[in-house]
Specification:
Radius of gyration: 13 Å
Order of helices and strands: EEEEEEEEEHEE
Shape: globular
Number of helices: 1
Number of strands: 11
Length: 119
Amino acid sequence: QVQLVESGGGLVQAGGSLRLSCAASGRTSTRNMGWFRQAPGKEREIVAHFGLTSTFYAESVQGRFTISRDSAKNTVYLQMNSLKPEDTAIYYCAVGSRSQVMSNSADYWGQGTQVTVSS
């Protein structure tokens, strides 16, 4: 069993920054971990993902968001800079292969953390 616990969401003004954390426990590692988001009225989308050999970023966050990890703590982070109102969403940590997340699915999900960016 794998448990994912996110933290770090909140309210920030446009142009500001937030860092999300996802602590994993159980039979998993930081490989194949990533972040999704779902904005009101929109479909869930992959934001960033650590694959086995490469890192993926959605085009909409390229250059602004950075995914990182602390393998010793089994924790993945999402540093979000230059935030825009359109980044407002519930952000979910997930464990899944690259092919899974690109198909908008995963094996395990966190409970989600709200990020709200005001204009």
